[in-house]
């Protein structure tokens, strides 16, 4: 009998909600100060217009304007406006080894600040995907400087 190929379906990243930040916060690639910081000293300011995707524990996943593009990261949940309803992000946590070398970026597209070369064979945890862009949102536990890092890679790099 011929086995049909398995089609992986991942959690789909929700569309961001634009809102005004209510407090300052540093921006990290994952939900916590133990994660790699997107760019040294990157922070949001109170009153800044940013995109909110949802929340993970005490952290909000956001899109922040940087150098003509955006960076996707996490800020303290207390930075979200009180009247903004954020859903929990129910990420997948599926482990893969990269099938091919990929470039991890902190934003969908080429407009982010972080571009990290990730060799084939690297262990990644797939959290979500943006189907229309052919990207998956992953965490690399080995990360940068011993800190885990989250970002976007082409789905093709998974070989699924």
Account of the 3D structure:
The chain is mostly beta strands and 160 residues long. It is 0% helix and 44% strand. It contains no helices and twelve strands. A hairpin with a 2-residue loop joins strand 11 and strand 12. The protein is globular, with a radius of gyration of 16 Å. The N terminus is likely disordered.
Question: Count the strands?
Answer: 12
Distance between the termini: 21 Å
Instruction: Please identify the oligomeric state.
Output: single chain
Percent helix: under 10%
Overall pLDDT level: 89
Q: What would you call the shape?
A: globular
- The fraction of residues in strands falls at 35-45%
* Rg result: 16 Å
Helix and strand succession? EEEEEEEEEEEE
Tally of contiguous helical segments: 0
- Main pleated-sheet profile: 4 strands, antiparallel
Spatial strand order of the main sheet? 1-4-5-6
In the predicted model, the low-confidence regions spanning at least 5 consecutive residues are 1-5
Structural class: mainly beta
């Amino acid at each position: 009998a011929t086995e049909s190929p398995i089609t992986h379906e991942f959690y789909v990243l929700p569309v961001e909600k634009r809102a005004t930040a209510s407090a300052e916060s540093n921006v990290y690639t994952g939900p916590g100060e133990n994660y790699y910081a997107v760019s040294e000293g990157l922070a949001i300011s109170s009153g800044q217009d940013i995109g909110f995707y949802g929340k993970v524990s005490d952290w909000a996943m956001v899109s922040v304007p940087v150098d003509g593009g955006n960076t996707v990261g996490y800020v303290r949940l207390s930075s979200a406006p009180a009247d903004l309803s954020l859903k929990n992000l129910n990420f997948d946590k599926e482990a893969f080894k990269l099938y091919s070398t990929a470039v991890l970026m902190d934003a969908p597209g080429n407009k982010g600040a972080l571009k990290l070369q990730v060799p084939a064979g690297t262990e990644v945890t797939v959290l979500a995907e943006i189907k229309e862009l052919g990207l998956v949102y992953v965490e690399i536990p080995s990360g940068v400087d011993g800190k885990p890092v989250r970002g976007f890679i082409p789905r093709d790099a998974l070989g699924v």
